[in-house]
Amino acid sequence: MPSSFYLSRLVDRSLLSKCPTLARIAHTQLVKVGLIDNTFWGNRCLQLYFKSGSVIDALQLFEAIPVKNTISWNVCLKGLFNNEYLNHALYLFEEMPERDVVSWNTMISGFASFGSPRNAMRTFLDMQRYVIRPTEFTFSTLATMVTCVRHGEQIHGNVICSGVSLSNPVVWNSLMDMYRRLGVFDYALSVFLTMDDRDVISLNSLILCCSDSGNKEMALDQFRVMREMGYQPDEYTFSTVVSICSGLRDLCKGKQAIGLCIKMGFLSNTVVSGAAIDMFSKCNRLEDSVKLFRQLEKWDSVLCNSLVASYSWHGFGEEALKLFILAMRQRVQPDKFTISSVLSSMNVVMLDHGAQVHSLAVKLGFDLDTPVATSLMEMYFKTGLVESAMQVSATTDEKDLFFWNTLILGLARNNRADESLAVFRQLLMHRGLKPDKVTLTGVLLACCYGNFIDEGIQIFSSIEKAHGIDPENEHYACIVELLCRVGMITEANDIAEKMPFEPSSHIWESILYASLELGDTRLAERVAERMLESEPKSSLPYLVLIKLYEMTWRWENSVRIRYALDKQKLKCAQGSSKLGIKCSVYFFEANQLQIHGGHDTWATLELLSWDSDDQKSAEHFV
């Protein structure tokens, strides 16, 4: 007969393997020795069945346990949630003869796992009505689900009233991270300052809080203080610090952080190395990103996503697609971030590949995910397939602000100004979202392309008052271009002159082109001078003045400008084209000859270049 020690080892082994067969073997052994009616062994076997995913067997065993205690009910309740049997769990909770704090915590965490914060908060309120004292686990779970500051403050107040010790970092770390997510950085800092005992998680939250609030330099200072205080940074610390250096575009500090990662042995961590690849890419060192990826010799989704995103960010769509294909050949399962990055890298000549990636997204079930849908729309808008982009938009339920911005900008750039403004009006009626500077840039761009002068002026005038956004260079550029398009060049120039900061070159370009069309030499000379002050290496002012002087028969001035252009050794902008052939994309610049075919191609060109005299001489010679 098996001993209790043997049965315990068998159950423990079954729990580790999560194998239904082993679970049934353990159950059989318990029946043979007559221990299945024992509540302790029944609970253990019940837990074993739920771990292995055999929910039907678990429910049958639960009904067969003669004496069920609270632990039996809690094990069954947790098992149903873990196996995604939500309705069964709700029914079981209602049938429980006695509920302790573990039962209520299981319900709260179960709703959290199903993404239902409202039901979790409602369960917490019911828990308080039944005078069940919350535990640290209760507050920590609730803090991860809070979506508004008011609820966060209520949970914070409950933590204080419950007498949770300030020496317990678990709950206070959760509250600190909650306020950081909600954007209330002052509250997060106050929680940190009130804590008696802090750990690495507390300091990680502080670093991330400083970074999210825009104080990235202060975040790096906190990392320095953390090390001086003797705290040992972990993988999360280093991934955050490297990401901060990436956001600052500070290659020097980024290298120092990576050097420290190597010294402490953290670079082998996928998250840290992925952040390092992204940092090199954002600092315009893509070759170092590729080199690091090859040195790591790892093919997992995080690293592949980082390098695919790096290729996409630098405009190397073909390389991003090749890496994506290689990763799948290495059996790396693409996730929604991989699909989104690959789609964002697609250009006009890669439309066939984009359609294939779209099909893969549908097959994997990612097409309804908001970031993937946004990238799909972006790809179709770039290739001019507006109707395909609108179909994607119609099938997407959850739309974030980035989604709306992509839709507004895509319609505007494809000369669908009326539809772009209609989408903007829909966004204004959305309760949870507010337009940002990108949204307003897209709307002004739509007004510009549609020549909607009244709407454009109205929206531009209301940017600060109605939306609380200070107009930036891109907003001024849109309204100046709109005024230039409708012939109001004087008003456009006045706006540029009265800007509270230095206008960008794009603003002066619009006025310069408008002065060329009107033949206004005096204005063109003044604008060209302003452009050269900000961008002395630009050839555009010289070229426009040359064209204008030639139009007005002022040849001496034209020659003088040409001489100045040659003296500055400025390279004029050249046209370029892209051509997709099978799996490759070829890039051609103006005055560039690329021959694929060798001797036969040149021989054919020589035959075609023969003139009639050469042909007659050849015929006479024959």
From TrEMBL:
Q: Extract the GO molecular function terms from the UniProt entry.
A: RNA binding
Query: Which biological process annotations from GO are given for this protein?
Result: plant organ development; RNA modification
PPR repeats sit at 100-134, 168-198, 199-233, 300-334, 400-435
Q: Which UniProt keywords apply?
A: Repeat
* Name of protein: Pentatricopeptide repeat-containing protein
Q: What organism does the UniProt record list as the source?
A: Brassica carinata
Q: What is the lineage of its organism?
A: Eukaryota, Viridiplantae, Streptophyta, Embryophyta, Tracheophyta
